[in-house]
Amino acid sequence: MRRLLCLVLLPVAALSLAARAETLKVLTAGAFKQIVVSAAPAFEARTGHTLDIQNDTAGALAKRIAGGERFDVLVLSTGALQSLGANARVATTSITPLAKVGIGVAVKAGAPEPKIDTEEAFKQALLDARKVAYIDPDSGGSSGIYLDGLFQRLGISDAIKAKAVLVRGGLVAERLVTDEADMAVHQVSEILPVAGVSFVGPLPEAVQNYTVYAGAVASDSAHAAAARDFLASMAIPEMAVTLRAKGMMPLP
Asked: Which of 1, 102, 126, 139 has its CA 20 to 30 A from that of 64?
């Protein structure tokens, strides 16, 4: 009798779990995509929920959201999230700082690695490069916007524009593999996943720019509890190992 009861209840329990399973739409800036993807399997296995992960440049995501796109979790720079909170698109109380990332340099695997340990060395490496790939500032990518201003401050803006390979989104270092460029400058977390390239190192501190990323839950999310659960899973101390492996830096 007990065995029969178990056989009856098991399908009921499975149906109950399936009924509670939800699909969460997660929008993330490209720099943080690898972290979100790494955190997803454990969360999905623990909760039964499914994550629909989509990435884009920070500027493009802001435009999509301003256009009314719905989501459950959003990962962007802290400043961008606070602006969206002011516009009531994210719950400001849910904003959770996650990590920071700097900008680095890459070349094709096997190519000579330029010296970039000082501001002058980095400047010379840029001038010596045949083609330099980086995110198109007009696409809203944070590293591209910063680099555009940096090249102007270094007095090499015109020289770089003549050799620039501007990328609208995605992994800039892929342009090294296709020989469209021989130097790529992008956020470190978006360089490391690219096969066939060598990570030279981060920009020297004198010209480095760090972006702090945070996550937030949509103010109108239909799955707010599950969304907050996933966000919390990316903020636990144990994530520090994954963050470093993916080119991010844990926050103090």
From this structure: 102
Tens digit of pLDDT at every position of the chain (252 positions)? 555 444 444 444 443 444 478 999 999 999 999 999 999 999 999 999 999 999 998 889 988 998 999 999 999 998 888 888 778 899 999 999 999 999 999 999 999 999 999 999 999 999 999 999 999 999 988 999 999 999 999 999 999 999 999 999 899 999 999 999 999 999 999 999 999 999 999 999 999 999 999 999 999 999 999 999 999 999 999 999 999 999 999 998
Domain coverage including residue 66: 2-100+212-250
C-alpha to C-alpha distance for 106 and 104, rounded to whole angstroms:
7
Residue 143: name the closest of 30, 26, 246 by CA: 30
Q: How far apart are CA 234 and CA 98, in angstroms?
A: 7
Are 46 and 169 contained in the same domain?
Answer: no
Under 8 Å between Cβ of 54 and 25: yes
Same domain, 123 and 146: yes
